[in-house]
Amino acid sequence: MKDNNVQGQLKPENSSGIDDIIANNYAKIQALREKGIDPFPHRFKITHKLAEAKKLAPESHVSVAGRIMFMRIMGKASFAHIKDGTAKMQIYVKKDDVGEEMYNVFKKLLGTGDFIGVEGKLFVTKTGELTIHAEKLTVLAKAVRPLPEKFHGLTDPETRYRARYLDLLTNENTRNIFITRSRMVAAIRSVLNEEGLLEVETPILLSQAGGASARPFETFHNAYKNNLVMRIATELPLKKMLIGGFDGAYEIGRVFRNEGVDTRHNPEFTTLEAYKAYSDYNGMAELLEKIFERCIEIIGKDTVEYDGKTINIKPPFDRVRLPEAWQKATGEDIHNVLNGKSFNRAALVSLAKRLNLNLPEDMPAAKLFDNIMDELIVNKLERPAFIMDYPTAITPLAKCKAGDESIVERFEFFIAGSELANAYSELNDPADQKGRLQEQMRQKLEEKNGEVDILDKDFVEAMEYGMPPMGGIGIGIDRLAMIITGNASIREVILFPLLKPAGSEQD
Prior knowledge:
Blueprint: H1 2-5, H2 18-34, H3 50-53, E1 61-72, E2 77-83, E3 88-94, H4 95-98, H5 100-108, E4 115-124, E5 130-141, H6 157-162, H7 164-170, H8 172-194, E6 198-199, E7 205-206, E8 218-221, E9 226-230, H9 235-243, E10 248-256, E11 268-277, H10 281-299, E12 303-306, E13 309-312, E14 318-321, H11 322-330, E15 338-339, E16 342-343, H12 345-354, H13 365-376, E17 385-391, E18 400-401, E19 404-415, E20 418-425, H14 430-446, H15 457-463, E21 470-476, H16 477-485
Parallel strand pairs: 3-5, 6-10, 14-17
Antiparallel strand pairs: 1-2, 1-4, 2-3, 4-5, 7-9, 8-9, 10-11, 11-21, 12-13, 15-16, 17-19, 18-19, 19-20, 20-21
């Protein structure tokens, strides 16, 4: 091979196919064992991560470990780059220092992708690069399959999502996305803890789904011989925490909705739900702004590039009152399409026709309203904004505004046309709550709307023991990560997104 047997391209040394490469590496594993070397030892003691080692002075002695990413094999001395989860660093391996047998193992039986342990002293090369002069090498894990090409990594999205481990290994941007996401979640926790909220865990398997309008995944429990569903929200058990005497509670966890897949939806996703006694939806808006302030500290800037736009995410954010925006967009009072705590369906159909929105007349009233609102109001927002004060008919768990039973204290927070958060002044009147949920069941039966809140008798009974006034908020963690990292697809911020079976027709 030219260039002193350089393997830095991370390409196979032969072109006889992947099966031959795998067979060759398994043969090398056997050769290591025949030399009395364990290719997969249990442990290795390190003194420093590579990022820490790079801060030390020359002549410092270190014991480090990492994956070989590059090898330049020469006669009696060679160079290589190893990489751990913190950094990449050069090592210098000389036959006289590690011994002839180990040097031959390094040259002939190891390669890119393998994990090794290195013990030695730091020195600076003639080119000024801090390097570890190896005194001892230890084989830690022999890779069998070749790594993707180093300089381009994985570029096909489908391959990147299915083999995320290789995407993380070869694409620095992907690694940074998930590092940022992790720091973002930690920052959110810090804000909520400072607010005095208790982090808890609530059930994933339930006898019925509640707390949101969505279709659940269904399953069956063999021991109890009963049908169960996977949670679509964490709202109701968290509210029970406040009924039980806590002043605030939150959960960051997965929820599951049997819905379509697109750039903003994945069937399993992560949400934050938080509830604070004696607060309301205005307090939740302030809480969301505190979270954004902390996120700005994480990324070090108050603007993000998202879907081809530069977006300022520095609070405070605009407050848009839905009744006022509806009047301006449609030319009529929002109450014309409302009938107390339900919709005036005929008025919605008539309005959609007048606006030439071409919506099916048999569409459930709630969906008609959502489509009109999205088209005329949400899609025209230019900056991040709270849309506040929604119809009671689509918000069965929120408290009505004083003097108007058809409008509730609720906001949704939008950025670039995408809903990021949803918050209420929570309803705590059990009789009113029961009536609202009965209206949801009417919509399900009469309008064939499968995405409604279920009447949860146990929750209503819990409310009858007394529930304090409270504000509650739900935030889509994945969508927030999309905004903070500047990615317009949810699959870019979920480590292992749900995909169609390999080989099926692509999305």
